Here is the input.
Amino acid sequence: MGNALTQKILITFGFLFAYRVLAYVPVPGVDTAVIASFFDANSGGMLGMANMFSGNAIERLSIISLGIMPYITASIVMELLAATFPTIGQMKKERDGMQKYMQIIRYATIFITIVQAIGVSMGLQGMTGSNGQSAVMIDPMMFTLITTVSMVTGTMLLMWIGERITQSGIGNGISLIIFAGIVSGIPAAISNTIDGVNTGELNFLAVLVMAAIILLTIFVIIYIELGERRVPISYSRKTIMQNQDKKVMNYIPIKVNLAGVIPPIFASAVLMFPLTMLQSSTNEIALGVADALTPGGIVFNLVTFILVVFFAFFYASIVFNAKDIADNLKRQGGFIPGVRPGEHTKEKINEIASNLTGSGAFYLAAISTVPFMLISAIGASFFFGGVAVLIVVQVALDTMRKIEAQIYMNKYETLGSVGL
Here is the structure.
């Protein structure tokens, strides 16, 4: 393993360690015992799922309680705007424009975090413990100000950590932060499951069924994620002669799941933002909507299914550009047998990608909902649900691919510098 790869891995672990430390830094002015007791009584709803994505930061009311979700929400809004308005879409394609695009996302993240932080601080002011003690120990106005500043600072630190991991470490920083948050809670979830069996709250047979569901889910995820459609490519005789000493790829690999892990993350972010606001409200209608969208319920799973399918198609259309592939293929003297180069090749590749995206979207939506419904019926933790398992397995596979690619790159650089 080369020094460059070792350095990237150490940088990644260093930033993830800093993220876990931040999860234990509470917002000033709160009674953490009251927060913990309230969380224990309400951990089965959206609060519990949000806590899973935040790496258990919510139950401690950490400065990173809002997690990376405001950044993801801002990214969703900008992606939708880029797809709707050509000017913003063009901004993404230019180097200087991309910097401005990312700056807008950062400002939008600050705005969303401020709104959510104010909502959280107002909700906490009406919270009391079992003995009637208030969750807030300082002046309400001062507490709102401190909470807002603390949570904005925490979210911006997380956003910076994610970007630094992507630039200097291994893998996608934002995905790895969510991955680390989920993984950090798995030991406690396993311990609670064992305690549930010992106390009789959970049937041992139910735990075996849960383990079988998780293993089956992991197998399906790995099988689909490694699956791809290989579109055969032929090259002109001139191209073959010019590249006779080089290996020329004779197929175009198109993954079954083009959108990756992004659709379930986007769907969770879209659901969490309004539910955070609804649960802090005192309006009966708002609370009724929040109750209807309780994780594990029929309405919640139906909305999740629809959102995952939508984001799978939406994100696949962004990351997969058939026109660029067709143009590059034509430039290299390649073609799909029986298909004319240029526009016809683009249409053929688009047709194949669309069919695969349909299958991939259904797979993502089913994995995000069906295992979670079965696990919820047994009474197990969020950490064993489909979305959590999907994110952990997908991010692990993606990181392994990037480590492998870095190893190959180091080998080629070594051969290039010392010769054969």
